[in-house]
Amino acid sequence: MRLNLKDDGKGFEPSDEPTNPSGFGGNGLVNMKRRTKNSGGAFIVDSQIGRGTEITIKLPLHEKSWT
């Protein structure tokens, strides 16, 4: 499964992306990245100042038995 989130906001330097909850701007990206990783997925951030941000989350699909 793949989810893309994109905005046309102010963007940021990806190298400034917070890596822990004490980083700037809250915990949103940190929590999304952690949850994606814990689910066996990939979390990709593409952002440029003045051009917005695109976040791609790729998660594996698991068959679940309901019996």
Describe this structure in words.
The chain is an alpha+beta fold. 16% of the residues lie in helices and 30% in strands. The chain has a 3-stranded antiparallel beta sheet with strand order 1-3-2, covered by helices on one side. The longest helix has 11 residues, at 28-38. The mean pLDDT is 83.
Low-pLDDT regions = none
- How many domains comprise the coordinates? 1
Q: What is the overall silhouette?
A: elongated
What can be said about the biggest beta sheet? 3 strands, antiparallel
Total helical elements? 1
Average of the residue pLDDT scores? 83
> Got a strand count?
3
Could you give the distance between the termini?
A: 24 Å
Order of helices and strands: EHEE
| SS content category | alpha+beta
Radius of gyration, in angstroms, nearest whole number: 14 Å
Indicate the percent of residues in helices: 10-25%
Widest sheet, order of strands: 1-3-2
Quick take:
The chain has 67 residues and is α+β, with helices and mostly antiparallel strands.
Features:
67 residues; alpha+beta; three-stranded antiparallel sheet; 1 helix; 16% helix
What is the fold's blueprint, element by element?
Layout: E1 2-7, H1 28-38, E2 42-48, E3 52-58
Antiparallel strand pairs: 1-3, 2-3
